[in-house]
């Protein structure tokens, strides 16, 4: 990324400013490249959607809360463990980290709150939670792409919004959509997570 | 044109490596040692030397810890470091203004 740093001769002001700009951009881009959270939630959601599909089609006993409550509990539990595992300085936030983490917190809490409230009030609508989660995930990916400068993440955002458009267009919302969501979670959450993890480990 | 005395340039920051470290940390706030090494493409020894100088002047602080079983050194910019970096950037911008004029 940076050349000739081992040559420590004094620079002229223009070179100084160019180096400052380049390094500040690199520092801003460092957020969101670890990909751990994407892998975690992508795998959990893929499994949960697939198990729900098996349940809906009679391969497993009828259940819903029994699938999703443990899924949320495991996900947030691991998130809590990951947060405690990192030394305090890694939790220091720049503007990009705040924007990125806020966007994804909205996804997690928004979906969780809708799920909990709708189940408790017996108004749960599978189409509504699909639309909500696809819209929020697309938005969160877009925010992450903008603040980090990782442009290809915008295509992942578009992917989620394509899922949103598809689900919206369905007149009959049946169990097959659970397979679509399982595939979307694998392709648009887990896979980008592994790519980001690889980029992070290679220092790019 | 802004008046600027080049003698007030902060020598602690005025080195390619240290300026790169401070610039990176100014936006990232904190980074792992290995991450800095990859981004700056410098050796362990070179980076350690420059970090020590910045730390001695209170511009950064380091914290050693473990992630799992893997040792990790975190480097974080301090409040004094942020102020010094801002002053440095303002100085360079002023100097560039003089040059252009």
Oligomer: heterodimer
Total strand segments of chain A: 0
Largest protein interface, residues of each chain? A-B, 39 and 38 residues
Number of domains of chain A: 1
Plain-language structure description:
The complex is a heterodimer of chains A (204) and B (101). Chain A is an all-alpha fold and 204 residues long. Chain A has one domain. Chain A contains seven helices and no strands. In chain A, helix 2 packs antiparallel against helix 3, helix 5 (126-148) packs antiparallel against helix 6 (153-169) and helix 6 (153-169) packs antiparallel against helix 7. Chain A is elongated, with a radius of gyration of 20 Å. Chain B is of the alpha+beta class and 101 residues long. Helices cover 55% and strands 19% of the residues of chain B. Chain B has helices spanning 16-28, 33-40, 44-56, 79-100; strands at 30-32, 60-67, 70-77. Chain B has a three-stranded antiparallel sheet with strand order 1-3-2. Chain B is elongated. Chain B starts with 15 loop residues before the first helix and ends with a helix. The A-B interface holds A 1-14, 16-17, 19-28, 30, 85-90, 92-94, 96-97, 203 and B 14-17, 19-20, 23-32, 35, 38-43, 46, 63, 65, 67-68, 72, 74-76, 89, 92-93, 95-96, 99.
